[in-house]
């Protein structure tokens, strides 16, 4: 199964990078003119194009980039000259830290809330959890991020407002810098996990099989933990997998608010300056991460339910 999924992922990676490569070519302006500087002659601009291969046909440029990317060479920044792989290696840990922490918060809060709401459908707890979930879905990440900065960083001074610290240098400070961005990213995730889990559990606990267990005298707690959660585990895993991908994408906005030097900030800065190799390299790595998440999800599917293959 893993081999089949990997083979299926190859066209996805090629298609995603090809589309981005093509869209970058449609961006107005000429990067060769920027690199050549003010008052550059036409000969100098042509020389810059030839130097970076910008004068070659589109498919040739993309094929050459893809061949090198498959070997781990993501080219160099047109502006700084730094290897794109080095820039990504510096920024990726900051992004992964807040993504993992946000996903943990979403699960740690969303799963208990979903169970609480499903235990008594239509009750006070159910209505309260659903109201909070609706609020979490409605609040934009960037707006919540600014509120968190105003309250907990600038107002109370409990947590840093901006920046990041490498995990290898100071784990505690690194986590302190990641808490507020992670909460901003996790708010919608808490709502989504709790709502989806509540819906799946209510459906499962009202099934004929569960009614039979109740008639046999099995306690509600045993039904919930041994049968209810087991039956909804695949659906819950799907929700968490999709949530991880969405959180990864949302880091672009949140990193800008908290001035975190992560992948989102890197690609935005590169896109503004038309540093195409950096943009393409970041997209390539992000696609690989999404593919890895989906592959891990497929493997866990077969663990939770052997009938899925």
UniProtKB/TrEMBL annotation:
Residue stretches making up the ABC transmembrane type-1 domain: 92-297
UniProt xrefs under InterPro entries: BPD_transp_1_N (IPR045621), MetI-like (IPR000515), MetI-like_sf (IPR035906), Sua5-like_dom (IPR006070)
Domain YrdC-like: 4-218
UniProt KW Transport keyword: yes
Major location (coarse): membrane
UniProt subcellular location: Cell membrane
Regions crossing the membrane: 7-27, 96-116, 128-154, 247-272, 278-304
UniProt entry keywords in alphabetical sequence: Cell membrane, Membrane, Transmembrane, Transmembrane helix, Transport
Top-level taxon of origin: Bacteria
Family (UniProt): Belongs to the binding-protein-dependent transport system permease family.
Record's protein name: ABC transporter permease
Organism in which the protein naturally occurs: Camelimonas abortus
